[in-house]
Input
Amino acid sequence: MDIIANYGTTLVLVAALFGFLMAWGIGANDVANAMGTSVGTKSLTIRQAIIIAMIFEFAGAYLAGGEVTATIRSGIIDSNAFADTPDLLVLGMIASLLAAGLWLILASYFGWPVSTTHSIIGAIVGFAVVSIGPEAVQWNKFGGIVGSWIITPAISGIIAYFMFISVQKLIFNTDNPLDNAKRYVPFYMFLTSLVICLVTIKKGLTHVGLHLSNGEGALLSVAISIAVAFAGWIYIRGQQYNPKDDSKMHFANVEKVFGILMIITACAMAFAHGSNDVANAIGPLSAVASIVAAGGEIGGNSHIAWWILPLGGIGIVIGLATMGEKVMATVGTGITHLTPSRGFAAQLATAATVVIASGTGLPISTTQTLVGAVMGVGLARGIAALNLGVLRNIVVSWVITLPAGAILAIAIFYVLQACFS
Output
C-alpha cells in the first residue's frame, strides 16, 4: 500500500507508457493479421490499409472497446486475492503490459502472427502465480477463454467455408458470372454492413450517450445496410464490360467487384478488431489507474478513465504503420492463395465472429479467428490449397506465446518490485 501512496502518479505514467507499447505491438501484429487479407489480395495497398485502420480501428477501440476490457481487467485473476496487497496487483499489471508488448514487437519483427490475447493472458497468469499463488487465477474463467481459442477459429472457418461455397455456386460456377455478381453482390454488401452496424449501434453508440432499444437498433442497422447495398448495386450496374470477353476475363471482372467488397470488409474487420483487442492493452492499464485513483482499493467494476481508450487506439494505429508489413505478408500470401472473393469470405467470417465475441465480453484471439477463416476458404478448394508448412510454423508460434508472456512478466515483476520497494 505504501508503494501506491508514494509512487501513485509514477505508476500510472509507467503503466500508460507500457500500455501504449502493448497497443503498438497489437497494431504491428494483430492489426496486420486483420488487414493482411486485403493487402494480400491487392484489394488495398499498404498505405490504404493503414488509412482504413487509422479510422476504423480507432473508432472500434474508442466506441466499443469497453465491454471486453472488463473481462481482461478483472475476469482472469481473482482481484479479491490482492485485497491486502494491491501494490502487487499494480506492479503485476504493469509487468504484464511490458512483457506482452515486448513479445509482440519481437514477433512482429520476425513476421510471426501470434496472439495478443495469449500474450497478455499468459503474462497476467504468470505474475499472479508467483505473487499470490495458483489460487489467484480464476481457472474456471481461464478454461472458458482457452476453449474460445478452439471454438472461434472453428466458427470463423465454417462461416468462411460456406460463404465462399455460396459465392462459387451463385456466381463463379454459372454461365454468366458477371451478371450474377451484379445480382448477388449487393446482398453480400447488405450482410457485411449489417454485421458492423449491429455492433456499432448496440454497443458503440452507448459510449457516446446515444441509447437505442434492441428494436430501434435493429431497424436502424437494416436501414443503413439497405442503403449500402443500394449504393453498391448502382455502382456495379454502372460498370461496363465487353460481353465478348472470354471466361477468364469474366472471372477477372467479377473479382474486381469483390475487390470493392474487400474494402467494406476491411473496414468491418478493422472496427471489429479495435473493439475487441484494444482490451489487451487498456485492460491492465485501466486496472492500474483505477486502483491508484482509489488509493489502493480494488473495485470490480470501476470506470475507465477518458484518456485510456484513445491511448490504446492511437498506439494500435502507429504499430500497424511502423511494423505491420511482415505479418501482413505472412497472413495475406503465406497460408493460401487469396483472391478478392476468397479474401472477402475470410474477412467477413472473421468480422462476424469477432463482433459476436466482443458483444458477449469474451476475449478471443483475432489471429486464430482469421487463420481459421483463411483455412476454411482454402479447404473449400481442397487441402492441397493450404501451405501446411506455414500453418505449422504459425501454430508453433501460438504455443510459444503463452509461456513467453508468462516468463517475461515474472522476470519484469521481480525487477519492478526491486525498483519500487
